[in-house]
Amino acid sequence: MNLSLQKIVKTYDGKAVLNHFSACFQARGCYLLLGENGAGKSTLVKCIAGDVPYDSGTMHYPQPLADCVAVQYQSFDSYSHLKISEVIRLFKH
């Protein structure tokens, strides 16, 4: 099962952060997003995770992404009392 993104557009206050972004991510792959500040990395991940709606384009995946996508943002205060190994176990099904 691959995740296919076609021409994803996301704007904030009229500025395109994602401008017709397209990619295909293979199942069971691990991906690293690199780019300068403001390049749209976090916005892309938030769109994939369903945390932020994208303005246009298509996203295809055979099942709800919320069931199989986990996101760890840079600032992670929700479980500050846990060790990283405990956080991983918490989110593992």
Structure description:
Keywords: ATP-binding, Nucleotide-binding. This protein is of the alpha+beta class and 93 residues long. It has one domain: P-loop containing nucleotide triphosphate hydrolases (Rossmann fold), CATH 3.40.50.300. 18% of the residues lie in helices and 28% in strands. The protein contains two helices and three strands; from the N terminus they run ββαβα. The chain has a three-stranded antiparallel β-sheet, with helices on one face. The mean pLDDT is 84.
Summarize this structure as a short list of keywords or feature phrases.
2 helices, alpha+beta, single chain, 18% helix, Rossmann fold, 3 strands, 93 residues, three-stranded antiparallel beta sheet
Topology overview:
Layout: E1 3-12, E2 15-25, H1 41-49, E3 56-60, H2 84-91
Antiparallel strand pairs: 1-2, 1-3
**CATH topological fold name:** Rossmann fold
Approximate strand percentage: 25-35%
CATH class: Alpha Beta
- The radius of gyration is 15 Å
| Secondary structure tally: strands | 3
**Mean pLDDT, all residues:** 84
Number of helices: 2
Spatial order of strands in the largest sheet: 2-1-3
Please give the largest β-sheet. Answer: 3 strands, antiparallel
Uncertain segments of ≥5 residues (pLDDT<50)?
A: none
What number of domains? 1
CATH superfamily: P-loop containing nucleotide triphosphate hydrolases
Distance separating the two termini: 18 Å
Shape annotation: globular
Q: What is the H/E string?
A: EEHEH
- CATH 2nd-level architecture: 3-Layer(aba) Sandwich
Structural class: alpha+beta
